[in-house]
Amino acid sequence: MEETAGDTDAALERAIGALLDARAPGATICPSEAARAVAPEDWRDLMPQAREVAGRLAARGEVEVTQRGAVVDVATARGPVRIRRAG
Fold first, then answer.
1. How many whole angstroms from its chain centre is CA 80?
2. Is-contact 12 35, C-beta < 8 A?
3. What is the top-level taxon of the source organism (predicted)?
4. Which region among 1-10, 31-40, 64-73 has the lowest average model confidence (pLDDT)?
């Protein structure tokens, strides 16, 4: 069975949640950590999708996307970003 983009999105959402659950409250993860968890060999190809999933989670109020400690819109942020639980 071939994996769809929706399947990958769901896997990335689960990976982001699991990674954040494993961290201390307020700690952050990099979107690449979720991409690596979903596709260890091809994680770089998943980076744009991982950022999009983080943006959707942020829009739902579940996480915040930050850059240099400030909350940013991942759709317009350039360069490295981090993800943390909203709160």
1. 12
2. yes
3. Bacteria
4. 1-10
- 66 bridge partner residues: 71, 82
Gap between the Cα atoms of 22 and 74, Å rounded: 23
Question: Residue 65 is which amino acid?
Answer: V
The first and second tokens of residue 56, run together, are: 């959707």
- Is the separation of the CB atoms in 50 and 12 below 8 Å? yes
Residue 31: closest CA among 74, 86, 76: 74
In single-letter form, the type of residue at position 48 comes to P
- Kindly report the average pLDDT of the chain as a whole number: 95
What token pair was written down for 25?
A: 């409250």
Domains identified in the chain and CATH numbers? 5-85 (1.10.10.10)
Q: Which residues contact 50 (CB under 8 A, 6 or more apart)?
A: 12, 16, 31, 32, 34, 35, 38
